[in-house]
């Protein structure tokens, strides 16, 4: 079976020029809690995950030594949210993005997810995002396959 047979054709997209605040507002409406980032020509340039969003709010020194959390005041998180409201998506997104095409096999998507420890893949046609394959879709497909036998 091919990706086109199980993909969701309505991925969540955001532009590189959009802001952190806009991203947070649309997260309540997105289905998969991952947003693909596109440029002016609608070409895929990155991805924003929940982890990327949290990283914006946590200082880099905490990632080096978590004991430094104790020096942060109780309102730090809220203050960082407000300070970063106008940060562009270009500064938040991850640029390493694994992709599949509509004609790829389902096993290719599963292998990419396992090997790269990711949960979601964009489906690409001519550099543009035309769908999404979340890990849950693969699980549902496995259930469907097993129910036939």
Features:
6 strands, 3-stranded mixed sheet, 6 helices, alpha/beta, CBS-domain, 19% strand, 149 residues, globular
Q: If you had to describe this structure to a student in words, what would you say it looks like?
A:
This protein is α/β, with parallel strands linked by helices and about 150 residues long. It has one domain (about 5-149): Roll (CBS-domain), CATH 3.10.580. The chain is built from 6 helices and 6 strands. It has helices spanning about 20-25, 50-55, 60-65, 75-85, 105-115, 135-149; strands at about 15, 35-40, 45-50, 100, 120-125, 130-135. The strands form 2 sheets. A 3-stranded mixed sheet has the order 1-2-3. Strand 1, helix 1 (about 20-25) and strand 2 (about 35-40) form a beta-alpha-beta unit. The longest helix is centred in the C-terminal third of the chain and has 14 residues, at about 135-149. The protein is globular. The chain starts with 12 loop residues before the first strand and ends with a helix. The mean pLDDT is about 90.
CATH architecture, by name, is Roll
How are helices and strands ordered from N to C?
EHEEHHHEHEEH
Distance between the termini: 17 Å
Number of domains: 1
List the helices and strands and how they pair.
Layout: E1 13-15, H1 20-27, E2 34-38, E3 44-49, H2 50-57, H3 60-64, H4 76-83, E4 100-101, H5 106-116, E5 120-125, E6 128-134, H6 135-148
Quick structural gist:
The protein has 149 residues and is α/β, with parallel strands linked by helices. It has one domain: CBS-domain (Roll). It has 6 helices and 6 strands; from the N terminus they run E-H-E-E-H-H-H-E-H-E-E-H.
């Amino acid at each position: 079976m091919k990706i086109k047979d199980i993909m969701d054709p309505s991925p969540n997209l955001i532009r590189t020029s959009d802001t952190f605040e806009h991203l947070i507002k649309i997260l309540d409406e997105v289905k998969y809690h991952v947003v693909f980032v596109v440029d002016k020509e609608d070409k895929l340039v990155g991805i924003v995950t929940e982890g990327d969003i949290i990283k914006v709010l946590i200082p880099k020194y905490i990632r080096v030594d978590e004991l430094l959390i104790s020096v942060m005041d109780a309102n730090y998180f809220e203050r960082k949210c407000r300070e970063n409201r106008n940060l562009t998506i270009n500064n938040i997104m991850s640029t390493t993005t694994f992709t599949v095409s509509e004609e790829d096999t389902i096993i290719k998507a599963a292998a990419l997810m396992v090997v790269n420890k990711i949960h979601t893949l964009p489906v690409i046609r001519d550099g543009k995002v035309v769908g999404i394959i979340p890990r849950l879709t693969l699980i549902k497909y496995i259930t469907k396959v097993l129910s036939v036998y």
